[in-house]
Design brief:
The chain is an alpha+beta fold and 254 residues long. It is built from 9 helices and 8 strands. 46% of the residues lie in helices and 17% in strands. It has an 8-stranded mixed beta sheet with strand order 1-7-6-5-2-3-4-8, with helices on both faces. The chain is elongated. It starts with a helix and ends with a strand.
Length: 254
C-alpha cells in the first residue's frame, strides 16, 4: 500500500539526517521509541522538524514503527548504493550551444555546498564576496558542516592578485576554517596555490577553472567536472587533509 505522506517524510528525514544518522533513526524505530525520545537523541539544528514530521506521518497513515524502520533501512541502503555509483558530467559557464546545455558554475557550486552534511573542503586562488555562495556556506555552517577553505594570499601571489585578501571573502561566514600554502622560500618562490575545487562529504567533487568570485561563477567562460561517488572525491579530500597534517597547508590567521 502506498503511503505518500510517510514516504515523503521519510525521504526528507534521511536528507536532513544524512545516511549515518538515519541509521540511528532506524534503530530507534525498530525499538519502537516514541517521537519525544527520537527528538531528544537526534537533537541537531534542522533535524528535529524533519523527524517530527516523519512521526506525524506515521501516525496519520497508520504506519507501525517496525514497518517504518524496515522502509527507512531499505531507503538508506538504496541511497548509499546510488551515492557510491560513479557519475561524471561536465559543467560549463558562458555562451551556450545547441549541443551542450550550459549550467551556471555558481549553481553547481551552491548545490555541492548545500549537499554537504558533515564536511566541506574547498580550494581557490582568488575569492571575492558573492552572496549566493556566502549564503550557502553560512547555511552549511549552521547545520554543523565542518568547513575548510584553502586560499591564496596576496603575498603568495606575489603581485598577481590585487585588492583585498582572498580570505576576506569568507569573513562573514561563521565557523569556516581558512588555510594557506606555506612555501619553501628557497625552492618555490614563483609557485601559486592555483587549485579550484570543492568536496562535500568525500562523495561529491567539483573540480574546475572557476575561482570563488562572482565573475568566475556567473560571467566568464569556465569549465569543470562534477563527480559523484567513486574514489575521486574521497582521494581529493584525503590529499587536502594530509597536506594539512604535514603542515604544508597551515591555518590562516588574520
Amino acid at each position: 500500500m502506498s503511503r505518500p505522506g510517510f514516504e515523503a517524510a521519510a525521504e526528507a528525514a534521511v536528507a536532513a539526517l544524512g545516511l549515518s544518522r538515519a541509521k540511528d533513526l532506524v534503530g530507534l524505530l525498530a525499538r519502537r521509541r516514541a517521537k519525544e525520545r527520537a527528538l531528544t537523541e537526534l537533537a541537531t539544528p534542522g533535524v528535529g522538524e524533519a523527524v517530527a514530521r516523519l512521526y506525524d506521518a506515521m501516525e496519520a497513515e497508520s504506519v507501525p514503527h517496525t514497518e517504518a524502520a524496515a522502509y527507512l533501512r531499505g531507503y538508506v541502503a538504496a541511497t548509499a548504493r546510488a551515492r557510491d555509483a560513479v557519475r561524471v558530467r561536465t559543467v560549463w559557464s558562458g555562451p551556450s550551444t545547441p549541443a551542450v546545455p550550459v549550467r551556471a558554475t555558481a549553481q553547481v557550486l551552491v548545490e555541492v555546498i548545500e549537499g554537504a552534511r558533515e564536511e566541506l573542503l574547498a580550494m581557490t586562488y582568488a575569492a571575492r564576496p558573492y552572496p549566493a555562495l556566502t549564503r550557502a556556506l553560512t547555511s552549511a555552517s549552521e547545520r554543523g558542516v565542518e568547513t575548510h577553505v584553502v586560499v591564496e594570499t596576496l603575498a603568495g601571489a606575489r603581485g598577481l592578485l590585487t585588492g583585498r585578501e582572498p580570505a576576506d571573502a569568507f569573513a562573514s561566514v561563521p565557523g569556516v576554517r581558512l588555510w594557506h600554502w606555506v612555501r619553501d622560500p628557497a625552492g618555490r618562490n614563483r609557485s601559486r596555490q592555483h587549485a579550484k575545487l570543492a568536496v562535500a562529504d568525500r562523495r561529491t567533487l567539483f573540480l574546475g577553472s572557476a575561482n570563488l568570485t562572482e565573475s568566475a561563477a556567473r560571467r566568464n567562460i569556465e569549465a569543470g567536472v562534477l563527480v559523484r561517488g567513486g574514489d575521486a572525491p574521497r582521494r581529493a579530500a584525503e590529499h587536502i587533509v594530509e597536506l594539512q597534517r604535514m603542515g604544508v597547508l597551515r591555518p590562516l590567521r588574520s
